[in-house]
Amino acid sequence: MFQVNGKISKTIDVRDRSVQYGDGVFETIAVKEKSLKFWKEHYQRLNKGCKVLKIKCPPEVFLKKEINKFLRKTKKEKLVLKIIISRGVGGRGYNPPRNTKPTRILGIYDWPNYPLKNFTKGIQMNICKTRISDQPALSEIKHLNKLEQIIARLEWQSKAISESIMLDSNNNVIEGTMSNFFGVKKNVFYTSTTKSAGVEGIMRRIILKL
Question: Fewer Cβ neighbours under 10 Å: the N or C end of the chain?
Fold first, then answer.
């Protein structure tokens, strides 16, 4: 089920800059019994991403109210909610019109069922050939252009491999194609900086506060 600007819909205007240029940000949130897990952290990152791209972010109270109303339309107790905020409709070329109205898209997806062995025995991973570019201006946020991750994910199709590690051009470990990376050595957690590349993951932030 999907909703666009407060109305149930499966379509958006093809002129929307999310379609034309990947001009927007998104968040993916776990929902259990209609409760948005780590909502504050997700909204903070969404708002940060909008500020970086100079898109007007919906106010937190307004957006959460809209989301809660949307969630009441499903009977699912566990689901994944995706939020997309695009710059909106208008303009050919990279310089967007100044009067665009942001587009709000909400989507409900099934809860993923990962095998129990993933948690008890771990997972098999590769190292991707595709590298992540250094781009401090866009690091840490979840923008809609994920071509590097898509190309990296196409490197393997084996169901035995659950994830792959992505490096930067200097062969530094940055993150997985869809996850942050942590290493443990002598009971000490290590993780990569996200100042030049990578996403500032919500669980990464939570773990670093422990």
Answer: C
Selecting among 103, 142, 194, 200, the annotated active-site residue is 142
Average pLDDT over the chain reads 95
Check 28, 64, 148, 155 and give the catalytic one.
Answer: 28
Respond yes or no: is residue 28 known to be catalytic: yes
Which of 27, 140, 163, 175 is flagged as catalytic? 175
Residues 80 and 131 in one domain: no
Do residues 104 and 65 make contact, with C-beta atoms less than 8 angstroms apart? Answer: no
175 is catalytic: yes
- Domain extent, residue 79, equals 2-110
Structurally, the chain folds into a number of domains equal to 2
pTM recorded for the entire structure: 0.94
